[in-house]
Each structure stands twice: as C-alpha cells, then as structure tokens.
What does this fold into?
Amino acid sequence: MTTMTETSARFREFKMPDVGEGLTEAEILKWFVQPGDTVTDGQVVCEVETAKAAVELPIPFDGVVHELRFPEGTTVDVGQVIITVDVAPGSGDAPAPAAAPVQEPVEEPEAEAEPKGRTPVLVGYGVAESSTKRRPRKGASAAPEAAAAAAAVQAELNGAAAPAPAAAPAPAGAPAGGRPLAKPPVRKLAKDLGIDLATVVPTGKDGVITREDVHAAAAPVAAEAPATATAPPVSEPATAEAPEAGVSASARETRIPVKGVRKAIAQAMVGSAFTAPHVTEFITVDVTRTMKLVAELKEDKDMAGVRVNPLLIIAKALLVAIKRNPEVNAAWDEANQEIVRKHYVNLGIAAATPRGLIVPNIKDAQDKTLPQLAEALGELVSTARDGKTSPAAMAGGTVTITNVGVFGVDTGTPILNPGESAILAVGAIKLQPWVHKGKVKPRQVTTLALSFDHRLVDGELGSKVLADVAAILEQPKRLITWA
It folds into this structure.
C-alpha cells in the first residue's frame, strides 16, 4: 500500500504501512529521529511492533523531520500519518508543527461508543471482530508527558515519593458530575497508580487534571499503604528491571497489557482451538541411534559451521514422513469448502522470545539438504531470539515442530498454528530402561505427540505420519532408504 502522501510541494507525509498480510495496526516502540533531524531515503526512522514482530520502518524520501504525529507506545492504525518531512528546507518559514502546540491543554475525552473494529490475528489468516481500544490522540506533545508518566510509575514502584503540590480548589469551569477532564497520559498515569480521577482535585486551566494533581492524590495513598506493598527495604536493593509500558505492579500482583505478538498469538490459538477439530496421538521411541548420529555429525567436516542437534534430525524425519504421506500437508479452505494440498513444506519452528511465542518457518524445507536445513534452523532461531523475525518469515507455514523437551517436559498436546494441518511436539530425551534385543538396557528415549486437524487428517493418516517419524528416529538410516 502507499505509505506516503504529498501535502504540498514542500511537505510529505509518511503513513503507517501494512508490514504484514492484512495487519490493521502497529505500536510505535521507538523513534530514532526527532523534529529538526535530517533524514535520507531508506533511513530507519522508527521501530514498530505489529501483531507478528518488531519491524524497523525506513522513510522513502530525503528531508528534515517536521513533525512526529504519535509518541512512543502509541498504537496506530495502518494508513495513519506518523511523520511529516520538510523535503525543501530553507525555502521559507515552515508552519509550526502540531507536535509543539502553544495553547493550554484541553480535554481529550475518552471514546465511549466506538464501533466494533477489527483485531489482527496471525499474518495470513484474516482478522477477527473485537471491540477497539482507544488510542492516544495525535500530537508528539504527548511524548514528554508519556515519558514522565512512565517515570512516575517507576518511581512509585521503587518507593520514591513524587512531588505533591498543594491541592487547589477546582475552578469554576470544572465539570459538575460529568467525566473528569484529563489528557490521555494523565489518565494512564492515574490508572497505573490506582487513582480514581473523579476523586482528584483539578488545578489546570478550565478544570483540567494535571499529572501533579494525580501525584498529589496518590501521595496519601502511598503513605497509608502497608510496608509490604512498597519496594524492598533499603538493605535489600531491588534487582527487578524497569516495567514495560502499561505495566502496573504491587506486592500481590502485576498486570501486563496484552498487545502485539502476545495478543495475536492468544487470539490465534483460541480461534484455532475452537475452529479446527484437534486430535493428538502419542508415541514413545528409542532415539539412541539418532543421538549417536548427532554426535557423529558434529565431527563431520561437511557440517562445519552449522549447529547440529536432535531437532535437526527430527525436522528431517518429519519432512521425509510428509514426503511418504503427502496428504497430511494440506489446509482447509472454509470459504470454498475445499481441501488444499500443498506441494511444498514451509516448516514452522515454535520459538520462545521476549515478545512471546512466535512460529517462523523455513520456506520450501523439503528441498534442503541436511547442511542447508541445519543452516536455516540456526538462522531462524538466532533471528527469533534477537527479536528481528519479520512478518513474512511467519507467514505461509504448513506444518510446525514445537520442542518442549528443552524445558524437561515429556510431552504435551500442542495446538495447531492457524491454517496448518499438523504440529509435532518433541519431548525431553532421557536415559531410561528399555527392552533392546531382548534385554533391559539404558537407552535414550523420548515421547512424540502429533496434533492434527481431523477435517484434513484422519486417524490412519495421522498414525502413519507419527509412526514414520518414530521409525526414522529409531533407525536414522531410513533417512537415506526412505528419502
């Protein structure tokens, strides 16, 4: 979609682009430029978080930043202008940017009857209906107050007392019995500190509640709170990191806003669980020979420079099983009432990241050699851990692997990634007593669990796929004989 418009021969606007497939909004995480900075075509000006990942946005023209329309932490609809740039600086006096208004603050009433909007789910799988949340108003002037509000929240959490000016009587212009007047950052601060704005005495012009008014109202509350509800004693220095934006905490609970990746994953998993009829089958297998193969491959010069681990062999085993049972690699087209067989495998790997669980996938994994697959797995995991996974890397998956064994878990019943036909859970590999060649011996054993969409995969097909994966892991030479 077009992300910039020309407001005049001198000023251009850059709009929030759709950086994924069908995404409707993104949160501005960080601005890398400020008004007055010079920017060049292709320069990254901000980082945003979509429902899929954190993405850096480059600007498509040269000039001088005139205005930042939204502060950090604001959720912005796709298509809204986020920055304006003076592309002909020095050609005359430019109008003062809206980011620095000179008028006194006025009421920013909360939306009360907004129509139902559209909430993004996983990229490529449409959007779901939900109630829209109110977003901060335009104007970068909110940025300093938002930062101050966050600092004030941190101060409260650390037990620091905020300055509390003497309360003044409400001016005649204050609403009587109506909604208290306050700007969005002040409302957020009050919410974080647990203060009812209706109880706050306003001192701002025309009855507007200021941040100082909220702090003044919060001071008595902090003074009356029990010691256990504050930060640790001075003798025990606090080691907790600063909370993310919107987080409120006390001694008994912490509330974290659900947004971005976590929000999308939660919605997608609920949709998947209640749309696709899940069936899960389990099998326990002796993987001693696979573990020996892993050890040998680590010493193989052809595998030098790539990471070799059991997940690599499991991924290859699943790809061979899909090749032997291609009907499992499919999708359900509800609109057309069709089963869509895929002649390629985009192999998803579930990855835990600071932003939540994401599932990037290896495109056309079926065509990769073992060294190529190892390299692709390494890059996928590294990128995910760095928080740089792109929306495109998470779109179009067909089958997924989730490795719960790294947490010492034996197995689980994984939920399908929306639009996919199956997901394989790999449990912990443990030394266990096992009957081998007629004798009980210690062997490396694991449990596999395969969940599949019963509309696409019946019990026979699902059992064949799981049995093939287990057979390969028990006798990895089948990677050659069955390939």
